[in-house]
Structure formats: C-alpha cells, structure tokens
Amino acid sequence: MDGEESISSLVIGVLMVVFGLIGLTLAAGALDIEMAIFGWSLAGFSVVFLFGLIRRHFDDKSAARAAMGADHG
C-alpha cells in the first residue's frame, strides 16, 4: 500500500467513525422506530466498513511480505 492510498484509507476511516457516531446519536434520540432503525443501520454499516478497511490493510501487508519473501527466495 503506497502513501497516498494509506492516507485516503485513513481519511475514509475517520469519516466512517463520524458516521457511526452520528448513527448512534440518531438512534439514541429517535422518537420513532424508523429513525432508530436508520441510526442503528448507519452505525452497523460503519463498523462493518471499518472492519473491511482493517482487513484490507493486513491483507496488503501480508501480500507485501509474501512478495518480499519470494524475491529473496
């Protein structure tokens, strides 16, 4: 993963944290079930998306390590 892609992943990750917090705030202050469902869904989507970013980061690190090992082997 190059520097530019790393920075963009960080920015997207921070935005997803903000969206997750907004979703939790919406769910906590909801007066009707529809807004509560929307808030919980937004928070859940943010968590799943963040886990995907983390997985992609470690997959890239693993691929780079495997390529480095193949070059030296």
Furnish the topology, listing elements before pairings.
Blueprint: H1 3-28, H2 33-72
Helix pairs in contact: 1-2
Structure explained in plain terms:
This protein has 73 residues and is an all-alpha fold. It contains two helices and no strands. The longest helix is centred in the last third of the chain and has 40 residues, at 33-72. The protein is elongated, with a radius of gyration of 17 Å.
Q: Tags for this entry?
A:
single chain, 73 residues, mainly alpha, 2 helices, elongated
Strand residue percentage: under 5%
| Biggest sheet details | none
Q: Termini distance?
A: 22 Å
- Give Rg in angstroms: 17 Å
- The overall strand count is 0
Number of helices: 2
Structural class: mainly alpha
In N-to-C order, the SSE pattern is: HH
What helical percentage do the residues reach? over 70%
Q: Determine the mean pLDDT.
A: 92
Regions with pLDDT < 50 over 5+ consecutive residues? none
Overall 3D form = elongated
Short synopsis of the structure:
The protein has 73 residues and is mainly alpha-helical. It has 2 helices and no strands.
